[in-house]
Amino acid sequence: MAVIELKPEFLCKYDILSLGEVMIRLDPDDVRIHTARSLRVWEGGGEYNVARGLRRTFGKRAAVVTAIADNPVGRLLEDLMLQGGVSLEYVKWVPFDGIGRKTRVGLNFTERGFGIRGAVGCSDRANSAASQLKKGNIDWERIFGQDGIRWFHTGGIFAGLSPTTPDVVLEAVKTAKKHGTIVSYDLNYRDSLWRDIGGQEKAREVNRAIAPYVDMMLGNEEDFTAALGFEVPNLDKSYSKLDPTNFKTMIEAALREFPNFRVVATTLRNVRTATINDWGAVLYADGQFHDAMLRMGLEIYDRVGGGDSFASGLIYAFLEDKSPQQAVNYGAAHGALAMTTPGDTTMATLSEVEKVMKGTGARVER
Q: What is the pLDDT of residues 222-269, one digit of tens each?
């Protein structure tokens, strides 16, 4: 029996559907946000990035559920998303009030780090259209019951956007489970999202309410601690973030409380500098732990989106009925590649992912 039982492909309109906010990312390239005189424009969002990766790198049928203000900035975001190939069929377009008092497009200024200077993210997303989604705004019965979705992905970033978004997530995951759709959830804890609305206590309350409906739970050590309350032992030791044993103890504790988790996966990262990280991953499935190869001294160009690309690699493997060991290898390799290019979203190809999985070097291809 497969670790995850998926609905047949021919019964579903999409292989992957993500729910979350999609923002415009403004990148000052090699300077600082506060010294920039020009900004490069991308699109991105934790949940959306997963669907986009599955479409662009892995060739899967992908769609996104979100809301966007209907103004020129929103249409710029639409144009960027169209290039990503993710279907916008379920996008809710919200009338613009003229100045953004009621609704707007969220902005994310992202500054790449270098050496001893860490990366910096500065969000400007309050009152965005996606943050104002409420229970009942989306026809989930049509999406999961009539159109058919094989895999649904969302996460803690969207759940933390506003007082109403947790209800949207709960409505979605309950309907997904009713119709046999697999649910994955990335805890993706962001202190800046929760700080003003109850902090870690509120994050845990929200994420624990969602967790019973999740088949595959994702996150790093901070996510599982801050968003679910499971401590990782020995993290004060040098390089302990790369010791799978510590994470296995944490995962076992999570499984005791949430036995519905079919898969639990976490990335392993040690930040030597902003541009040199050690990178790996561990996955639990079918009663066993599976470790990806540790990549020591991985050179980082832009670390944003590495975890999202890890998630899309995992999901691709399970959609293709590959083994849990193959899944964690696909995820870790895709996440590593995504951090070698700028922007939130992956620029890798499937052949490149599989080449990295085989340990092939970075010799020039001609």
A: 899 999 998 877 666 555 667 778 788 888 899 999 999 999 999 999
Enclosing H/E stretch for 177:
helix 165-178
- Residue 236, sorted as left (phi over 0), alpha (psi -120 to 50) or beta, turns out to be alpha
* Strand residues in 137-274 grouped as ranges (E): 149-155, 182-186, 216-218, 263-273
The answer to whether 244 and 289 have CB atoms below 8 angstroms apart is yes
SS (H, E, C) 281-327: EEEEECCEEEECCCEEEEECCCCCCHHHHHHHHHHHHHHCCCCHHHH
Round to whole Å and give the CA distance between 336 and 307. Answer: 9
**DSSP letters for 47-104:** HHHHHHHHHHTT---EEEEEEEEESHHHHHHHHHHHHHT-B-TTEEEEE--SSSSS-B
Q: Architecture of 9-356 per CATH?
A: 3-Layer(aba) Sandwich (3.40)
Closest CA to 125 of 51, 202, 21: 21
Residue bearing tokens 């309950």? 174
Which amino acid, one-letter code, is at 30?
Answer: D
Instruction: Tell me which amino acid residue 321 is.
Output: D
How far is 219 from 230, CA to CA, in rounded Å?
11
